[in-house]
Design a protein that fits this description.
Layout: E1 2-4, H1 8-20, E2 41-48, E3 57-66, E4 71-77, E5 81-91, E6 97-102, E7 105-107, E8 112-115, E9 120-127, E10 138-143, E11 148-152, E12 154-155
Parallel strand pairs: 1-11, 2-12
Antiparallel strand pairs: 2-3, 3-8, 3-9, 4-7, 4-10, 5-6, 5-9, 10-11
The structure holds copper (II) ion (CU).
Amino acid sequence: MRTIFLSCNALAAIALSACGDTENSSASYETAQSACPANEIGVSDAWVRPARAGQPTTAAYFSICNGGEETSLVSAAYDGADAVELHHTAMSDDAVASMEKSDGVLLPAGETVQFAPGGRHVMLIGVKDAIAEGSDPLITLTFANGEKLNLVFEVRSEAESGDHLHP
Ligand SMILES: [Cu+2]
């Protein structure tokens, strides 16, 4: 189990170590994939919408770069909620957005998968206490290869897009 603090320094350290792992480093900054930690899963830009007292659900977002073999994100856990689910917001033929639960999100080798408003997100259901800006909720991601990442999320308000509202 590792705890990753997602600061600019941490991201810089990841970029530097990725560079250091590359024999021929001249081209290593040219694609977004170069920020992938070698043989590991890297998560960046992890944030969660604040949850006010009495608000039972909120959503968490991040981007995952898989520097290792193909695997899947199979679950997420947050102690302060009754349940945590992997969701995908889908648009129906008549342009109505709805959320679907998924049992796993494929992470192809060398690719980045975004969890972002309007798309994939981690849904926190039955939030027990308010999640306020300035706090640092800890969410654990579990992968099919057995790897777990304990991530400190930033609590960040953004314009409401409605994607996190459960029907
Ligand atoms: Cu959802």
